[in-house]
What does this fold into?
Amino acid sequence: MAFGKIPRFSPSFSPSEAMISARYLLQSGKREEVVGKFEREFARYIGAKHSVMVPSARYGFFLLLKGLGIGPGDEVIIPALTYFAIPAMVPLTGARPVFADIGLRSHVLDPESFRAAITEKTKAVVPTHLFGTPCDMDAINAIAKEHGVQVIEDCAQSTGARYNGVRVGNLGDHAYYTFGLTKNITTLSGAMITTNDDSVYESVRAAIDAGGLTPKRKSAKEAMTGIAMFVATHPWVYWATVHPAVVMGNKMGKDPIHERFGEAERVYDTLPPHYEAQSQPQAVQAAVGLKQLSRIEDLNGARIRNGSSLDDQLGNIAGLTVPEYPGGAEPIYMSFVVHHKKREKLAEALRARGVDTTIGYMNCLSRHELFGAYQANCPNAEEVNANLLHIPVHPNLCKKDVDHMVESIRAACMEVGAN
It folds into this structure.
């Protein structure tokens, strides 16, 4: 940490991955060999029978729905607080997304809300292990089994998290993951699906193999962006360049980081053609993934250390609500999300003390205008969405950083008041 300035995130991508990227971008061949090895190693890590690299989590989710035969007249239950692209995929199959509520402090699918949303048309449920927190999978699996519902785990923010000692992705029937540069494990964009179902695996594999190759220039651009992020969030650089820009942007009502890495919310009339046209990964992506997989326990361990420290120290601050976790959940703290009724003022006060923060990319979609045909009553998701704020918890934080954040949060909460 330099001068008490802490970025909201710092990438797992490092110079070692940059060297691997350069080597594989400059050579040809070995694509099938390297991709196959990464898929096998990832499946072994999760404990699943099959895995397939896919270009994005949303496309992987779409392919899982198609592999399960989900189509017109069917329903898929999704937690109301999620990323817009997931429910946006469901209507492309002809099915209907149905929103269920979340736990107010766990942020993950509430089992009883899931139960209440089930109809005779329900074919699948998507328990999202949001912010790195595993859902109550014992309850969700029991309800799903009772009603013959397929369980598709959303592990986009939770690779490596455990529930009762079992890694997420090996708790339901199928799962998908994403490996963007801001995730806890990256492959220069791209994603993965896992499944124990041979027919679903063959369906997804056939769709991916029928598509074209991801352009090398895209992987090269991601590698350069990864190095730029690594440099920009280095303490000696961040305090003098990025943090002042974030503070200035905040005063102008803008968020330059969100504008750079965010994505406009939308729905789809048809499946974007580039998913199929660029479905097969490059060797460089798998090679970076293999390196990241070898580091994931250390990376997650640092997140768990930092998140646990925040859990211990932020629980008694007036006006601030800290997370709770389902019994048996072992979160990896992809994000540490607090609630405050004056979150904008709190965020401004924290940035003034050198701690960057964000409201993130999730949204309450059960009342969102994009999904007006599927509206549902999900009061917990609405309340969380209005009050949540992300506190830095990335693996490049040291104990001094966490201590500085805790003191800054205490002081900022006193400054803005509880109500």
Q: What stands out?
A: The mean pLDDT is 94. The radius of gyration is 21 Å. The chain has 16 helices and 14 strands.
